[in-house]
Write a structure and sequence with these properties.
This protein is an alpha+beta fold. The chain contains 6 helices and 12 strands. It has a single domain, classed as Phosphatase 2c, domain 1 (4-Layer Sandwich).
């Protein structure tokens, strides 16, 4: 398995952009295009990662709140405890129900890891929003997991569908990193979906540095769709994931500079189209 991990503690330059990619997978991370105008604990609390195995590719993004340790531990938990099995040649699940249960297992373990790292450091837990996408081409499978207001976009020709939007009747933004988040509660307040890969060009994860009112862009889905379309026209196949990451993050950074208000920005891409 090949993997890469970008964490906020290592990328704290306002206006900076760090990229990593291998084949169909890429990640990008920035502290933001302008200084934050709200109170925060650490300068960059976002993390992104990818993993590529013989049977599949996985991407993940986490947007930490009140500290960088929450997002770091959530992403590390996926890389260390789930990515190799999920991307192996042999699939660990055979049907939609089994994949949903595996997804919930991963969210529960990531939630627990946030609590554990806080305890080891004698700190309050640092909750995080969390998004993940896994594709397994031989099984024609996309699995997506979402807790909170980070984004999972499934991009087809001409449209970017949001797979992780919190439901309109929820009165709060869910996070990982709470003692109360046992299996029934996480099952209720996470969005776990499976679908086939037919007609998909790319899967794009983005933290809310792309979409936060007064900081990001007005229509993030449209911006993501336009970036994918432009990259498909202008870029050779082996660079499309990286250039999509670059384009999405640079779109966010321009919005931050224009509005003189920044936020951390993470993006992860799986390129599917040929």
């Amino acid at each position: 398995m090949e993997s890469a991990f970008l964490c906020g503690r290592e990328h704290q330059w306002v206006g900076g952009l760090e990229l990593a990619g291998v084949g169909p997978a890429a990640i990008a991370l920035s502290r933001g295009g302008a200084q934050k105008t709200y109170s925060y604990t650490d300068p960059n609390e976002d993390c992104v990662a990818f993993a590529i195995g013989k049977g599949g590719q996985l991407i993940v993004a986490a947007d930490g709140h009140h500290g960088e340790l929450g997002s770091e531990s959530a992403v590390e938990t996926i890389l260390d405890g789930f990515a190799e099995e999920w991307t192996a040649a042999r699939a660990p699940a055979e049907d939609e129900k089994a994949w949903r249960e595996l997804g919930l297992d991963a969210l529960l373990r990531a939630n627990q890891s946030i609590l554990e790292v806080a305890g080891r450091n004698n700190l309050p837990p640092a909750p995080t929003t969390f998004v993940l996408a896994l594709i397994r081409p031989e099984e024609d499978l996309l699995l997506s997991l979402s807790v909170g207001d980070s984004h999972v976009f499934a991009v087809d020709r001409g449209i970017a569908n949001e797979l992780g939007t919190p439901k309109s009747d929820w009165k709060f933004t869910p996070f990982l990193g709470y003692e109360e988040a046992k299996r029934p509660l996480l099952a209720e307040y996470s969005i776990i979906q499976t679908r086939n890969l037919t007609d998909l060009r790319a899967i794009v994860l983005a933290t809310d540095g792309l979409s936060e009112p007064g900081i990001g862009v007005v229509d993030p889905a449209r911006e993501v769709c336009a970036t994918v379309a432009q990259v498909e026209l202008d870029t050779r196949q082996d660079q499309r994931a990286v250039e999509t990451c670059r384009g999405v993050v640079e779109t966010a950074l321009r919005a931050h500079r224009r509005q003189k208000a920044g936020d951390n920005m993470g993006c992860a891409v799986l390129w599917i189209g040929h």
